[in-house]
Design a protein that fits this description.
- This protein has helices at residues 15-36, 38-45, 57-78, 81-91, 93-106, 111-136.
- It is mainly alpha-helical and 142 residues long.
- It has one domain.
- Helix 1 crosses helix 2 (38-45) and helix 5 (93-106) packs antiparallel against helix 6 (111-136).
């Protein structure tokens, strides 16, 4: 079979595929929340919503999450496990930065929000490790 005719995308029968699709849906939902209800999104993030024109940054955060969720979906359907794992691994920078932002702004007064962002990063890292492991077991097929 030529590389061009090789099917792409993570197989739907694999639990790792459903993990990636669930992450995709979660980020699309978070993105929608920040776009449609920015103050609620800010509260979930762990920081107060800014006032005035600065409130416009919250939908930008939402669009970032929405785009990331759609990237994950597209990768899950079109790319190899290694490609999805690479994107997840790189994307752990976002929740790591979110932990730092909340910690710098609120200190340890918001442990639930810090834990939420840390858990998000740990989940992405674990998913990346799972998919890297799967791709290194000789399963380089999508």
């Amino acid at each position: 079979m030529s590389p061009r005719s090789k099917a792409r995308g993570l197989p739907l029968h694999e639990p790792s595929t459903w993990f990636v699709l669930a992450l995709s849906a979660l980020f699309v939902g978070l993105g929608g929340l920040f776009v449609l209800a920015p103050r609620l999104g800010a509260a979930l993030f762990g920081l107060p919503a800014p006032e005035g024109a600065s409130l416009g940054y919250l939908p930008a955060i939402g669009l970032r999450d929405l785009a990331f969720g759609l990237y994950l979906f597209a990768l899950a359907r079109l790319a190899t496990a290694r490609a999805v794992a690479t994107v997840l691994a790189i994307t752990t920078l976002i929740p790591a930065g979110d932990v730092a932002i909340v910690a710098l702004e609120r200190g340890l007064s918001s442990p639930g929000h810090l834990l939420l962002h840390a858990a998000s990063g740990a989940t992405m890292a674990a998913g990346a490790a799972w998919l890297f492991h799967r791709s290194h077991q000789g399963d380089t097929s999508p």
